[in-house]
Amino acid sequence: MLRQVGLAFKRIGLGYNRLAEQYPQATAIITTVVKTSAADAFAQKVIEGRKEMDWRRHGMFCVFGYAYLGVWQYYLYNTLFQRWCASITKVVGHQGSASVKTLIDQGIHHPFIYFPAFYLWKGVLENLDPLVSLERCWGDMWVNLKALWMVWIPAQMLNFTYVPGHLRIPFVAAVSFGWTVIISVLRGALPETEPSNQKPLEEI
Q1: Cα(166)–Cα(119) distance, rounded to whole angstroms?
Q2: DSSP-assigned letters across all residues of 68-121
Q3: Which of 24, 126, 127, 204 has the fewest C-beta atoms lying within 10 Å of its C-beta?
Q4: Which among 14, 19, 65 has a CA at the least distance from the CA of 181?
């Protein structure tokens, strides 16, 4: 029985890999949307114990999963990072440049692009002034980054060192399932109180 289950998972994995090799960007985008949808549904129904799904919030995460986590990050990791780090890769090799890519991703991309984009998008759906959204973003930044770096510095080192390009975004999607659940719970619910009453990420 276990052997049959193992063989079934192996066939699924090999089929997914072939699909990702043939259609890398489409596979990456679909994977991130499915992952983001599943993560928020899990957060709402299991972790938060909601009887009814908040479909507005769910849609917010799915659109963000498509546009940012799928389209943008595929281009960032598989095109821009390769271009930016080409000279370094020539000197130290592909594995040697992984630390530089991780530094760019975690030290520049996430603090200055990912988190502001996330908070601005959430603010649009809450009808907030963009400056208010950014103020929230910077106010939450340090606790968010501490949670981020615990997961993503080691994960991205593995990703940029060993994972082939066509599986790079699916790898991120797999790891970020847990991260999306955390963000969904901590930042996803539309607030019923003033922003100053929201608990920081590490207190929840």
Answers
A1: 29
A2: IIIIIHHHIIIIIHHHHTHHHHHHHHHHHTHHHHHHHIIIIIIIIIIHHHHHHH
A3: 127
A4: 65
Other residues' Cβ atoms within 10 Å of the Cβ of residue 54 = 15
pLDDT at 187: 58
Residue 143 Cα to chain centre, angstroms: 17
The reported pTM is 0.81
Question: Mean pLDDT across the stretch 37-47?
Answer: 86
- R_g (Cα) of the chain, nearest Å: 18
Question: Do residues 179 and 156 touch, judged by C-beta distance below 8 A?
Answer: no
How far apart CA 116 and CA 138 sit, in angstroms, is 8
Q: How far lies 150's CA from each of 24, 106, 179, in Å?
A: 28, 11, 11
Q: Crossing angle, helix 168-187 and helix 24-42, to 10 degrees? A: 30
Q: Which two tokens stand for residue 34?
A: 């499915």
Distance separating alpha carbons of residues 43 and 166, to the nearest angstrom: 28
As a whole-number percent, the residues of the chain with pLDDT over 70 amount to: 87
